[in-house]
């Protein structure tokens, strides 16, 4: 049962991580920290947080200070190419990233994206449930657990998955309200 709880918590944590990158009008480092940058030819792409110091300059501006000043233009291109609709401004050795308040249309797109991420997390929870049920079926067939224990465990699995599904929906609803309430 601990394994089930750990997997369900992992699905919830992943959703929270995914939703943190969906912007709601305020400048947040989580918005850009995982943008992939092809900084050096022949090497794997690196995330922005691996290449620079990221900070919030003010409520509407992020500041990117690359450790290697030769990759400033590549970082700027990667931010521009991301699907976040941001236009970075190179200022000598740093990059300022203005985060404009999204339009109503863009907020609706973000709300749809939130719904999609929540649905993916719920699918993950259902998959975890199916795996747990399959494991219980195998244990019952092999005589490792009694009939009573089998049904009690099934009910417990259903209860835990139902609870996490409600939490995922609640998280999604709160994020949609945050996105739409700018």
TrEMBL record:
GO terms for molecular function: ribosomal large subunit binding. GO terms for biological process: translation. Keywords: Protein biosynthesis. It comes from the Bacteria. InterPro entries: Ribosome_recyc_fac, Ribosome_recyc_fac_dom, RRF_sf. The keyword Repeat does not apply. It holds the Pfam family RRF. Residues 17-180 form the Ribosome recycling factor domain. PANTHER family: MITOCHONDRIAL RIBOSOME RECYCLING FACTOR PSEUDO 1, RIBOSOME RECYCLING FACTOR. Belongs to the RRF family. This is Ribosome recycling factor.
